[in-house]
């Protein structure tokens, strides 16, 4: 790896780390009910560039917007540098352009959450579908930034060369993450004061769809976790299999504790961070299969 490629790779890893922090902060926005912290305004916050006399919710939402803007600048820098430092057709260029597309879509989806009022106590089916779209795009964005960092070293990717088990594990991790997002939304909108009350809410005859969907996540998570473990130990190389195993076990444990503690905000954030870790480690394993 030459000096420029090494510099690009370091920058790409840094951009990836920053985007992970943005994603985690986004979970805080949702879990703390701060999505309307800037009102129905976008890109302005409560009609101003810098909101005067902000509430805690406004600070949380405004901080998310600022960090998201810096994330967009970082991805843009990857595109500019990849065009300058790598020849046409190089993988780093392709991944950087893909990440730019996904982060622009990410920004538009984020704006849509505000403009469509898919925040706070909105319990519509549209919000649930929208959040799933948002999370899918987020994970693809993170994966493409990771691909840009990896490609700087000369790696060449072909989806057809990824083992079917790893492809399936990525799909399982995505499905588990999506059901987790719906469950987390249910926890935010319909908080329970005890575990027993939560169960009663879910099985009540007039239970909202979000609460009934929340029931699916634990089963999906366990089945997906088992599949991911089988795929990791069967197909991943070296320490990657142990990393995936550790993250998966930690994630399942965090999920159980999350239910017992009635989904505190800090644990919801940790739960999402572990899901992102599993996704990125599996994606890196898929990239390593190309070496």
Could you walk me through the main structural features you see in this protein, from its secondary elements to its overall organization?
The mean pLDDT is 92. Helix 1 (3-31) packs antiparallel against helix 4 (125-151). This protein starts with a helix and ends with a helix. The chain contains 10 helices and no strands. The chain has 291 residues and is mainly α. The protein folds into 2 domains: 1-157; 159-291. The longest helix has 30 residues, at 56-85. The radius of gyration is 20 Å and the shape is globular.
Write the layout of secondary structure elements.
Blueprint: H1 3-31, H2 56-85, H3 91-115, H4 125-151, H5 164-189, H6 195-203, H7 209-214, H8 216-235, H9 238-260, H10 265-288
């Amino acid at each position: 790896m030459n000096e420029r490629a090494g510099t690009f790779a370091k920058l790409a890893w840094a951009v990836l780390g920053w985007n992970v922090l943005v994603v985690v902060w986004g979970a805080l926005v949702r879990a703390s009910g701060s999505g309307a912290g800037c009102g129905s305004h976008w890109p302005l916050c409560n009609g101003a560039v810098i909101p005067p006399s902000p509430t805690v919710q406004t600070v949380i939402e405004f901080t998310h917007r600022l960090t998201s803007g810096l994330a967009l600048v970082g991805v843009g820098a990857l595109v500019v540098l990849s065009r300058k430092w790598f020849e046409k057709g190089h993988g780093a260029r392709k991944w950087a352009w893909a990440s730019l597309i996904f982060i622009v879509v990410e920004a538009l989806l984020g704006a849509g959450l505000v403009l469509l009022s898919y925040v706070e106590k909105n319990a519509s089916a549209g919000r649930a579908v929208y959040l799933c779209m948002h999370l899918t795009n987020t994970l693809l964005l993170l994966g493409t930034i990771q691909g840009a960092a990896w490609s700087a070293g000369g790696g060449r990717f072909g989806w057809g060369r990824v083992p079917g088990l790893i492809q399936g594990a990525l799909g399982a991790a995505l499905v588990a993450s999506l059901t987790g997002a719906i469950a987390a939304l249910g926890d935010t909108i319909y908080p329970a004061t005890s575990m027993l009350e939560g169960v009663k809410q879910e099985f009540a005859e007039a239970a909202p769809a979000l609460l009934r969907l929340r029931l699916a996540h634990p089963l999906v998570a366990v089945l997906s976790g088992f599949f991911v473990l089988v795929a990791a130990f069967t197909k991943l190389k070296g320490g990657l299999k142990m990393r995936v195993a550790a993250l998966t076990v930690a994630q399942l444990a965090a999920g159980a504790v999350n239910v017992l503690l009635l989904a505190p905000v800090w644990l919801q954030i940790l739960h999402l961070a572990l899901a992102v870790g599993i996704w990125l480690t599996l994606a890196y394993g898929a990239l390593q299969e190309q070496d």
